[in-house]
Amino acid sequence: MSLTFPNRSRSYDEAGQRIRFVGYDGMFQISFSVAADAMAKMQPAAAANEAGYLATFDTEGSAIREVASRAYDRTHRSMYVLTAADFG
Questions:
Q1: In DSSP terms, which residues pair with 81 in a beta bridge?
Q2: Can you give the CATH number for the domain in which 9 is found?
């Protein structure tokens, strides 16, 4: 079964400086986080705070989910932290 993202919710983890979201492989939930450095790389002009990171996620959501899917296809783990390096 392939990875899907039926739940479009996301949240900001202030302590970890990242945005969290989930995907599903069948009935298995896969946790993802996108680090703040990745958000800044995608939209350098966005504010470096919760609102800015969430707005960047909303704007770049398709690209973020594509990177998440590729990461999952390589290793099939249950948790991933995506950084700027993952976004070429």
A1: 33
A2: 3.30.160.140
Specify the amino acid at residue 37: D
Q: Write the pLDDT tens digit of every residue in 9-46.
A: 999 999 999 999 999 999 999 999 999 999 999 999 99
pTM: 0.93
Closest CA to 39 of 55, 21, 56, 22: 56
For residue 78, report the phi and psi dihedrals to the nearest 5 degrees.
-100, -5
> Which residue segment(s) compose the domain that 8 sits in?
3-87
Integer CA distances (angstroms), 27 to 44, 68, 75, 82, in order: 36, 17, 18, 22
Q: DSSP 3-state helix, strand, coil percentages of the chain (rounded to 5)?
A: 40, 30, 30
Domain count, the chain: 1
Region of 68 please: left (phi>0), alpha (psi -120 to 50) or beta.
alpha
